[in-house]
Amino acid sequence: MIHVYVLKYFDQQEMENATEAVTVVEQDEQREVMGQGQPQNPPPPLRRRFIISLYVGYFLARWCVRTWEFSVALYMIYLWPNSLLLAAIYGAIESGSTAIFGPIVGQWIEGMDYVRALRLWLLCQNLSYTIAGGAVIKLLLDYDLKPRNIPVFATLVVLTNVAGSIGVLSTLGGTILIERDWAVVMSEGYPPEVLTRMNSVIRGIDLSSKLLSPVITGLIISFVSLKASAITFAFWATITAWVEYWLFISVYNGVPAIAQSNERRILRSMTKPVQGLDAPVSIVPEGSQGNPPRETGMLKLLDGVSKSSFVGAWRVYINQEVVLPGVSLALLFFTVLTYVLDLFT
User: Fold this and answer.
1) Is residue 304 part of a domain?
2) pLDDT tens per residue across span 60-76
3) Which residue ranges does UniProt annotate as crossing the membrane (predicted)?
């Protein structure tokens, strides 16, 4: 058996960029190490208007999500009276898509720069909810569609389920971006109370939206109609997308710490191709060894599943110290009828 070891070939320009990125990252790390134990200049104070812009943008986004979570069950029950079948199917699809594709969304958000992730989040969330709202409006306005044209009725229901699931997944990406990233970056260099206060306000915004959006939706349904609530929701998802983007991009441009964190994020992603630059590649001439053992289709499938993001996320979760309390809390939810269906039973 003859083994010839060769180095991977990299384009000259990409190599220079990657090397420069490695140098910058190493210089940042050296500055951090040298700066330890030395007094550093305090960060500039956070301007109140940027914090308010962050809160207002997050409120608009969460209000849309919480309104849909409450309203979709009402729409499904109205379309299929005296049955929770459509509502249960939607809940299963939404929860299943979050469990399966949630880790992939997290990896995408982690690998993107802030502006691209922000645009993708707002576009997918608001466009998905607009499509879902439009499908629901069509179903509500044409109430006799089910007995008259089953295929069209089923297509619109499927479209509602798929669009709603995509909206929930994009909402997960936005939650990671704002709550786990921007809030932490904005509070760097400040006392821990700053991050605690920001987290408490953000959670308060989410819970307030969850509490008040059903009230407003119920008032529209009671005093106007169910169709009016669907039209209002679709209109809200369409209009607020532009306002949300303007608010969030103003925060990005107005807080230097976020832009600096984004630059480090991009540089780290550029260093990934450099890893393994000197890794040897083995070339074996034809006929120099026997036939290698062939993997069966089942083994390839199992190998692919074991390397998937879904399995990898569960491995990370199992290694956490809070795995048992988390499983206990999940088992506790088996005894609770969630998804607002307890309001109708």
Assistant:
1) yes
2) 999 999 999 999 989 99
3) 118-141, 153-178, 211-239, 322-341
